[in-house]
What we know:
Elements: E1 3-6, H1 11-21, E2 27-29, H2 47-66, E3 71-81, H3 101-108, E4 118-128, E5 134-145, E6 161-163, E7 166-167, H4 173-179, H5 181-197
Parallel strand pairs: 1-2, 1-3
Antiparallel strand pairs: 3-4, 4-5, 5-6, 6-7
Amino acid sequence: MNKILMATNNAGKLREAREILSPLGIEVVSLKELGIDCDPDENGVTFEENAGIKARAVQKEAARANGIKIAVFADDSGLCVDALGGRPGVHSARYAPDGEKCAKLLSEMEGVSESERGAKFVCSVVFVDENGEAASVSGECRGKIGYEERGTNGFGYDPVFEYGGRTLAEMSADEKNSISHRGAAMRALYRLLKERYGE
């Protein structure tokens, strides 16, 4: 296998995947590069289900649009807060409009004690090979929810998610990638692909 399709057009995700997988000699291509427009309804109840829905839909569209059989991987991720029973979870992207997620979360966490503010970012990656066989890997980053928004880097919930005394939004991209849930999942994908396709 010398080419793999990542079910995304997110430049940051693509760059990270290419950096992590490049030692395998596998070219990572995006939806845009193959002219694929596919946005399936991710209605699974777990991150893994949603990533699988996306990977299979994109693979089917690649075959339909380009007449090719190509291996695909897709990810789904979100924030699980202990005090909220794991919410927002798979609904992280739809929890509140962009720019309002942190404020809503902080208001829900008002009055929650320091010891109860644990949370984790979770990322599931589903890989589907050229023959439709699927495998999944995951990664997580455990931290806690702070009391205010801090930092200007990152996106989403990064300004309120603390790890080692700093929020993810206070870290550089390299620092965040080294401890992030997506970075961990991508390194797990690297190990899976190396086992299957490495020399």
